[in-house]
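User: Structure please.
Assistant: Input sequence and predicted structure:
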Amino acid sequence: MSNEIEIKLMVQPYDGTAGGSVDGACFIHGMDGVLASLNASVIRTAELELENSYYDTPDLALYRAGIALRVRKTGSETEGTIKTRRMSSGGIHVHPEYNVPLSEKPDVPDLRMFPEHIFAEIDVDAVQKELYENMAQNCRRHIWLVSFMDAEIELSFDRVAYRTSDGGTVAGTELELELKKGGVTALQKFAGELTDAVYAGRIARFRPESLSKMHRAAIYAGISELKLPSEDEISWKVTENGVCGAEKGLADLMSTAGRLASIIYLGSEGRNEETAHKALDMMWRCFRALAAMQVPADSDIFGQYAELRDILRKRISGLSEEGTSDVMHFHNLADEMAALDGILTDRDFIRVILEINFAGLRGEKA
């Protein structure tokens, strides 16, 4: 078992539509140049074709217990993996991960090859009998393993084809930065320098993503959904005068905003237009609440939060109808998504979000 600590960033064209996919070859070429310009050494590169199969019961017993079960075939190698929940916020993912090499791809994996304590909340025998391959996705992955400061970091650029319930596919492009060796301080610094260089070279735009590939695959396959937050999930965090006063409130509100963003960016294959409009309305309310919050001055993240608040106040003010801070004015859904995209892919916004989330991981190592 190891803790997987990674940053997940969706990759979009620098001057493209919200959520659009980049040209893979151009992005890889641009990244080669960026990495050569940084104070980092590329240890190796690789191009892989990944076949990912996911397993659960018809009533999603593993998913409900916070367990993701995958078998991955890469060339001649096959590996069974279980990931469990720990943290997923603002693009930073931390999952306890258990890997077992396999001689071949099984019809269904044997749960007993993993440590017993993982399944404390479920009836292993009952689940084993009902396991089936409920979804799959193929992924073309380009890897750079780099040495930076005292750490080794693996960058994985994934071009993913998700299968939909009607037999089609949905494409996605994302970059994962996984800490392989060393401390999270090196990962944070490397992510900042890399993002600065990618934006300066107009190679792509990034967007932090809290949704895993497995959950996205389940949504597109029609066996799961990402539900809208309840009104209470937003309103309870905000007092009557619109001010929320603690770091936990900030973290919860940011988590809710991340969930809403994931819903919006699923596209028409993963949610309908009515849901998109509701999610966008909730997102603006989250942003207004974040812009009104007061974090204690002695907090470790006070400076970062003050910067986030200023970014959101400026952006929301520019988008609101004249004379009001509560009514956003857009001609259509595409315009509204473009406005949101302008915030979520803003370089300063990404930097501050990562800094706030990394504050809770100080001292962590791979």
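Confidence is low (pLDDT under 50) at residues 238-245.
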